[in-house]
Amino acid sequence: MTATISRRHKRKLKSEINVVPYIDVMLVLLIIFMVTAPLLTLSVDVKLPSSNAKAVETRNEPVVVIAYPDGRFGLKLPEAKQPEILDAAGLEAKVAAIREQQGSELRIMVAAEGDAPYQKVLDAMDVLRRAKVGNVGLMTNAGGNAR
């Protein structure tokens, strides 16, 4: 009878934690966060700063290019009281002619109305680059404690 009775082996319980499922969950969450993080910041509202710096003192008045919100450009020469309204091609031709006359001493300041998109300022600077103007600055309104 002892030959027919088989002994059962008792299994010993493991006291270890199986971490494989936790690693799988962690990797899935990591992938989800990596995919969704760039989608959370699609656009950023930017408020352009105003300057409190002192005005630059120059020997001669600069030529001012004004970028309007509707895409037009204005060219204000030092001796003129009102800016001349031009399109991009006309502005490029006029500025190129002025650059030929004044040479390397030509200074151009780019200004824009407060509600003009910054893209219009960049368009004006691109027109000046095509006209081969090297000395370009951005004009701001003096505010705050500027002296």
TrEMBL record:
It is found in: Cell inner membrane; Cell membrane. PANTHER family: EXBD MEMBRANE COMPONENT OF PMF-DRIVEN MACROMOLECULE IMPORT SYSTEM, TOL-PAL SYSTEM PROTEIN TOLR. The lineage of its organism: Bacteria, Pseudomonadati, Pseudomonadota, Gammaproteobacteria, Lysobacterales. InterPro entries: ExbD (IPR003400), Tol-Pal_TolR (IPR014168). It is a single-pass membrane protein. The gene is tolR. Pfam families: ExbD. Keywords: Cell cycle, Cell division, Cell inner membrane, Cell membrane, Membrane, Transmembrane, Transmembrane helix. Belongs to the ExbD/TolR family. Gene3D superfamilies: 3.30.420.270. It comes from the Bacteria. The chain crosses the membrane at residues 21-42. Its main location: membrane. Part of the Tol-Pal system, which plays a role in outer membrane invagination during cell division and is important for maintaining outer membrane integrity. It comes from Pseudoxanthomonas putridarboris. The Tol-Pal system is composed of five core proteins: the inner membrane proteins TolA, TolQ and TolR, the periplasmic protein TolB and the outer membrane protein Pal. They form a network linking the inner and outer membranes and the peptidoglycan layer. This is Tol-Pal system protein TolR.
